[in-house]
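User: For my dataset I need records formatted as: sequence, then structure tokens, nothing else. Please produce one.
Assistant:
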Amino acid sequence: MTKSLPRIKVWDLIAPAVPDSLEDLGNGKYLAKWWKPVPMQDVETLIHTRGIRIHGEPYEPKNLPEGLSVLFSIEEEMTAEDMTDKAKSIEARLRSTLPLQKTGS
């Protein structure tokens, strides 16, 4: 049986993917949901994130027409060092995409 992580830690681990909803299903499994319009880049990001194990194919839930759900878990070898490296990578990516503007000062 796998232990569930605090939700804020799961959000950090799946970033920069940002689902509309994140459910803790217990036993270390989570369900990310996006509703229409589904940002497919977020889904692809989650699917290809190191340390994330996808359980089955993304699917359209019956109660979420045109939405998408992804069932996943966090691999146990995901360490604090991995999280620090990921945070640095995300920060660097954000810095490289921020436009520089003259302020007139």
